[in-house]
Design goal:
Number of domains: 2
CATH class of the largest domain: Alpha Beta
Strand order of the largest sheet: 3-2-4-5
CATH topology of the largest domain: Rossmann fold
Distance between the termini: 42 Å
Order of helices and strands: EHEHHEHHEHEEHHEEE
Shape: globular
Structural class: alpha/beta
Helix content: 10-25%
Oligomer: single chain
Radius of gyration: 18 Å
Largest sheet: 4 strands, parallel
């Protein structure tokens, strides 16, 4: 198993899916525009679609109905889909052992046939798929807009800052907002020494991790892709997600985004208006 850069939090927490008081905690996600997902896939690429039985299912962006609908839409556009999977019984994609079983045992044939995984889940789930498949290629199918923390028994491993605008497509599935101490979007600052961050010498340089990941994937040219400034209003609080059928309305500041998760092709409405 390849380690692609764990970042240890200095805070404590409770198991994913509940707060310290025992109530539900959800990483809310909305699907990316379908055209954006299509643009990320290379011609002839063999893709497996993976959803999440917990948070993404509750947000109606990556449960079984949404994952199956995404498969139908992609196949209708000529994309080769090897199969799809969602953790059963409300399971979380960000639980590594369960995702390893899901992809390497329960759906081994579909997983091995795939060249990449389209992940309909939060940034934590995306990174778990990377770890569970020995660092194979991933495509984010959702934007993670807000939510709680995901933890293990003895420490919190953060891979997603819940910024509301996922940029993992150009960074090999590793988040620069989270892994870089300065949250730089377009490469390293130049202050790293021996692969370590100048802000915290005990911490790996996030952009070195991203470069090494892209090199493993044979996609170093993505380092030259300019990433425009993010709309940080999406990360501001309070935020809300209202769901009605296959429609989800994400509201932040004085703006809103409408996302769709059904089988029909629809224009994503109100994006950052």
């Amino acid at each position: 198993m390849k380690d692609v850069g764990a970042v240890r939090s200095r805070t404590a927490g409770s198991p994913h899916g509940e707060t310290e008081e025992g109530g539900p905690s959800v990483h809310a996600t909305i699907q990316k525009p379908f055209g954006e997902i299509l643009d990320a896939l290379r011609e002839g690429e063999k893709v497996m679609v993976v959803g999440c039985g917990n948070c993404a299912a509750k947000a109606k962006s990556g449960g079984e109905p949404e994952t199956e609908a995404m498969v139908q839409r992609l196949r209708a556009k000529g994309v080769t889909i090897t199969g799809w999977a969602v953790p059963p019984n409300g399971g979380s994609l960000c639980k590594l052992s369960a995702t390893q079983k899901l992809l390497n045992e329960d759906h081994k044939t579909e997983s091995e046939a795939a060249e990449s995984f389209l992940v309909l889940a939060c940034g934590q789930g995306i990174h778990t798929v990377i770890d569970a498949t020995d660092a194979r290629a991933v495509h984010p199918g959702c934007d993670t807009i807000f939510g709680g923390e995901t933890v293990t028994d003895d420490f919190i491993t953060e891979y997603c800052s819940l910024c509301g605008e996922c940029v993992l497509e150009n960074t090999g599935g590793l988040c620069p907002i989270t892994l870089c101490a300065k949250s730089l979007l377009n490469g390293p600052c130049g202050g790293a020494k021996d692969g370590k961050c100048e802000v915290d010498p005990e911490r790996d340089c996030g952009w070195r991790l991203i470069f090494e990941r892209l090199r493993e994937l044979g996609r170093e040219e993505l380092m030259l892709e300019y990433q425009p400034p993010k709309n940080w209003l999406r990360a501001g609080s309070p935020r809300s997600l209202r769901m009605e059928g296959v429609r989800a309305d994400f509201s932040f500041a004085d703006a809103s985004v409408t996302a769709w998760s059904g089988t029909e092709d629809r224009e994503q409405g109100g994006r950052d208006e």
